Amino acid sequence: MSAKFPLACSSWDQEELNAMHRVIDSGMYTMGENVVNFEHNFAKFVNSKYCVMVNSGSSANLLMVASLFYRKESPLKRGDEVIVPAVSWGTSYYPLYQYGLKLRFVDIDLDTLNFDLDQLESSVTERTKLILAVNLLGNPNDYSRIDSIIADRNIIVIEDNCESMGATFNNKHTGTFGLMGSFSTFFSHHISTMEGGHIVTDNEEIYHILLSLRAHGWTRDLPIKNHICNKKSHNSFEESFRFVLPGYNVRPLEIEGAIGVEQLKKLPRFIEKRRINGLEFQDSMKNHPDLMIQKEIGNSSWFGFSLVIREESKLSRNELVNRLTSLGFESRPIVTGNFSSSEVMKYFDYEIPFDVKNAEYIDKNGVLVGNHHFSMGDAIEKLSNIKY
User: Fold this and answer.
1) Are the C-beta atoms of residues 87 and 334 closer than 8 Å to each other?
2) DSSP helix/strand/coil, 182
3) Would you say residue 6 lies in a domain?
4) Spatial separation of the C-alpha atoms in residues 148 and 367, rounded to whole Å
5) What single string gives the DSSP state of each residue in 370-385?
6) If DSSP codes are grouped into helix, strand and coil, which group holds residue 284?
7) Range of the domain at 120
8) Strand partners, 128
9) What is the CATH number of the domain that holds 294?
10) What is the pLDDT along the chain (388 residues), one digit of tens a residue?
11) Count of domains for the chain
């Protein structure tokens, strides 16, 4: 039986179906003109110089991390220290492990669900080379504070923005504050291309590295003059199988690019509706006796609605989930909860310098329900009436 209020639902109309048929009629399914058009349009949307589309947000995170090892100046090396929040998706962390980085976990703020910024400041050491900032559930981090923490240190910031497309902080899109930012276009996200993701950056060297890593580590997609092999031959045969980086094949399909072009046209309207729902949600839940909600920083794109049981409440999470289910809500934990307590951590090189009590608290007392690109008034009213 399907839920009355699912976590996610389709945002496609006839435009997306027409786009798919155009690709089918063309017979060109591998990465081509539609992918290029989506990359150009998305870069323009977030005011970034470059965009590289891949087959998922997870692959976007993988290429972001990988690219940092192949810069000509100050490349990362195995054993370097990276600071991460204790709550995010698994594939935010896995590339860091796979490239041999040492993870240093920082607690989240119980209100914003992003970095506990005081603990972040205390966790930065002379060994810190990278900070992975995750904008959770559509909510921006406070990048002014993060900038002040980094100050003049030689620390790279990258953003996992897979849950926060369309969010802004100080009128700037999240995903564009760091050296790179990743995005996802999976079914449940702000726009959907079935599977899909992309990376934005203003750095031309990083852009060239990403282009090569995306497709086998070859030179074929690079401009003649580039930051990897300096200059390519004009002979396409010679360059067809020339490998210069240890890359992957994480290319998107042409059909995903075509769908993305159409979805991106609708994104401003989708974000506007999600924000209207977010305002109504905040107004309805602001004085709730049993449940806390996420405090908005900047302009959230409201991926979903988090519900965290207050410490003084007698409501249990099992009771809350059962109540939500009985009202027709599909629900999940808040992302991974405290990822640093996951079984998979036995494979990682990591440390937890301070207590991550807030991450642990939402791990045991947090629930997520969906937000959508259409009115959620009935659902929000039902949420506000859930009391012990």
Assistant:
1) yes
2) strand
3) no
4) 32
5) E--SS--HHHHHHHHT
6) helix
7) 14-261
8) 81
9) 3.90.1150.10
10) 478 999 999 999 999 999 999 999 999 999 999 999 999 999 999 999 999 999 999 999 999 999 999 999 999 999 999 999 999 999 999 999 999 999 999 999 999 999 999 999 999 999 999 999 999 999 999 999 999 999 989 999 999 999 999 999 999 999 999 999 999 999 999 999 999 999 999 999 999 999 999 999 999 999 999 999 989 999 999 899 999 999 999 999 999 999 999 999 999 999 999 999 999 999 999 999 999 999 999 999 999 999 999 999 999 999 999 999 999 999 999 999 999 999 999 999 999 999 999 999 999 999 999 999 999 999 999 999 998 8
11) 2
Domain assignment of residue 327, yes or no = yes
| Residue 10 Rama label (left phi>0; alpha psi -120 to 50; beta) | beta
Q: Per the residue annotation, which of 173, 189, 208, 373 is the catalytic one?
A: 189
Helix 57-67, helix 90-98: angle, nearest 10: 30
Looking at the structure, tell me whether residues 99 and 247 fall in a common domain.
yes
Residue 2 inside a domain? The answer is no
216 is catalytic: no
**Same domain as 206, residue 61:** yes
Q: How many CA atoms lie within 13 A of 376 on its CB side?
A: 32
Task: Verify that 47 and 171 share a domain, yes or no.
Answer: yes
In a domain, residue 201? The reply is yes
